[in-house]
Amino acid sequence: MSIRVRTNPKFFRPAEVDLLIGDPALAEKELGWVPGTSFEELVQMMVDSDVAIVEEAVSGGYAPPIPPE
User: Fold this and answer.
1) How confident is the model at residue 46 (pLDDT cuts 50, 70, 90)?
2) Phi-psi bin for 4: left (phi > 0), alpha (psi -120 to 50), beta?
3) What share of the chain has pLDDT > 90, as a percent?
4) Which of 5, 17, 33, 61 is deepest in the core (most CB within 10 A)?
């Protein structure tokens, strides 16, 4: 069986984007959506997740993951 996939580079996006800025105003205006998590809460969730990953690795006898530079 042969599978072929055609891609178009015009739709590619960089793996790392230097700056991402979002504004939920349109979603709030059009959909009535408001964020249920503050920025500070989101950051805390992300830190807690990273800490849990490192703790799991260390408790399993593995070296913790090294973040990319």
Assistant:
1) very high
2) beta
3) 48
4) 33
Q: Which of 28, 31, 30, 47 is nearest to 39 (CA)?
A: 47
**Contact between residue 64 and residue 58 where contact means Cβ atoms under 8 Å apart:** yes
Structure tokens at 36: 């249920």
Name the residue with higher pLDDT: 48 or 13. 48
Contact between residue 24 and residue 33 where contact means Cβ atoms under 8 Å apart: yes
Single pTM value for the model: 0.56
Phi, psi of 43 (to 5 degrees): -60, -45
Report if residue 42 sits inside a domain.
Answer: yes
Phi, psi torsion values for 42, nearest 5 degrees: -65, -45
With respect to residue 54, please indicate whether it lies within any of the assigned structural domains.
yes
